[in-house]
Amino acid sequence: MSAVAVLRLPLAVDLSGFVKLLQRMQVPHRVSEESGEQVLWVPANISQDVLSLYERFPAGDPDQQLDIPAVLTIQRPGFVEQLRYAKATALVLLLSILVGAVTLLGENLDTMRWLTFLDFRVVGEYIHFVPLADSLAAGQWWRLMTPMLIHFGILHLAMNGMWYWELGRRIESRQGSINLIGLTLLFSLVSNCAQYYFSGPTLFGGLSGVLYGLLGHCWIFQLLAPNPAYRLPRGVLVMMLVWLVLCLSGLISMIGFGEIANAAHVSGLLIGCFTGLLGGLYNRRKLAA
Hints:
Blueprint: E1 3-10, H1 16-24, E2 30-34, E3 37-43, H2 47-56, H3 79-84, H4 87-102, H5 109-112, E4 120-123, E5 126-129, H6 132-137, H7 154-175, H8 177-199, H9 208-224, H10 236-249, H11 251-257, H12 262-288
Antiparallel strand pairs: 1-3, 2-3, 4-5
Helix pairs in contact: 4-7, 4-8, 7-8, 7-9, 8-9, 8-12, 9-12
């Protein structure tokens, strides 16, 4: 079902209360910015109902039971409906799943070597890495980013996929698909280069460096320019930061989770905080203008 713009409001208008109301009612929606305005998108078949609801409760009233007509009680959007608002997020996840299938989650080295940061050859029981400069000279620039699509095991892919779906959709709904793809590629580039710099020629992969970038972006952006899309569930930020500290301590590796790409995590978080700072300051300035 197609989405329509039901509200176009100045950025200075606080829409957070009404968005909370839509969330409590489980109404599918998203808020974007276009030409200095915030735009509320909803499915076309309920647009008039949502507009009527806004006219009654422009500030929202999420903490009280409202006398709302049954026609406005919307069911939770299905997965297909959610995909309509998160095409770029779904694309990255689909590519990760496809790569996981063709690489047999890291078991098929012949296929995986085309996506790793360093090309390599298996000679007997040893892996011989090709210098990065040689690969780049041959035009294989994709290697700087494609390790994010490689995962080693179903649990690795499932956990990273779950968190990318959670964080990616927030950024895509707030800043659009192009910005999400751009941030994903930037975070992958920085985290992969950092991991290579600190660990040397090794096999590494996964979306975790990108995830910490997305986390840092949402975190700092929300502090500077509050928006419902970037308001993370309670405890998520603390949990991921605690996990980062545990990984840095070496405890996670000692209990059998394998080697952790700590440099990718830390660098991803730092570059994400930086982009969140830039984006938050820019949006704060627009609100003040």
